[in-house]
What we know:
Layout: H1 2-20, E1 25-31, E2 34-40, H2 59-68, E3 74-78, E4 81-85, H3 87-93, H4 102-105, H5 109-115, E5 122-127, E6 135-144, E7 147-154, H6 156-191, H7 193-196, H8 199-231, E8 239-241, H9 243-257, E9 265-269, E10 276-278, H10 280-297, E11 304-311, E12 315-321, H11 344-349, H12 356-366, E13 370-376, E14 380-388, H13 398-405
Parallel strand pairs: 9-11
Antiparallel strand pairs: 1-2, 3-4, 3-7, 5-6, 6-7, 8-10, 11-12, 12-14, 13-14
Amino acid sequence: MIRIIVALSIVGVAAVIAAVIPDARIAVILISGTAAVAVTATKPVERPAPAERPPILPVATSERAVIDAIAEPVLLVVDGRVRIANAAALALLGTHILGEDVRLAIRHPAAAERLALTGSDGSTELVGLGGRDQRVQMEVATIAPGRRIVHLIDRTTSYAAERARVDFVANSSHELRTPLAAIIGFIETLDDDNAGADPEVRERFLSVMMKEARRMQRLIDDLISLSRIEADKYRLPETPVQLGTLIEEVTADLRDSDGQARADLHLAIAQDIPPVTGDATQLSQVIHNLVGNAFKYGKRGTPVTIGLRRDGETLICLSVADEGDGIAAEHLPRLTERFYRVDPGRSRAQGGTGLGLAIVKHIVERHRGRLDIASTPGIGTTVSILLPVAILPPVIPTSVIKMSSN
């Protein structure tokens, strides 16, 4: 009994020593049935502090940061509902889409099947999402079970450019084919011994063929001109041009070519107009095209006025106004489109190619200007062009130059 009490006491002493000296090595040994305590004091072991690890962000926070950094509309869909949407997606689809079924957030028949829980990943074209003429490419990809990324890419601009290219080729081919078919037809007629032998018929046919050939030549010249202007679109002009002098030169050329038709050409040029930085050849083409249109579509015997004035401190306004039939409002936004005509029959009869205002628009854009067209049916049309004033280097007085040379 006494041995048991002694053994329990020794064990208690060992526990106390362990509490006081954490790093001591303690052994309880049984010797001849009696417990004994052996204590070995050791130097505390210095353990290196664990390396600091960067905090692990919650999944939702990291996903939101990535999605918000994307400029195009992006949605994170979890179990068929919109969990995260960046600013572009909220602007396109509305702020109410968060937490909503993705098929209701993107309301489009072509998107519903792919956005369903059982839908497959891939690409779908959505026409009319966000606007009647807007085209959006929807890319859907699964990143984890029940989690999908929906990426909306706006293809409206690229589609419009491709459509414009296709229309341009088709219209060019049509415009060239029409006079070419007429020329070929008359040549075949003249090749006939009976028709070609008549001097009157031959002369009439040759006159029509010459007219159609010149029409083709004007069209080809305008196409080449438009191509050159587009090639120089991003190369800014560097030469100062006095528009007042240029207008007078163009006016003289027009009056010499057809004095009777140009008799009603009036000038309204303000004094002390500063130069603009431009390409004199292209600006001359602008004036020729605008004045030519004014005489083609204005009423004969009514004046065509070329105006030049300052518009504030930094702009020069060049305008050409006629007193013709005017243009209806629905046609104004499309007047600068290639081959667009308000009255196709009248335009072709007047010798127009349908490219005049398109050329003007591209030249004005190259000069970093602005083109405005205002028209009232029955009253007339005014085309205005705003161009920036040239920034010229400061003029150094002659006396200063002499002093510096001495």
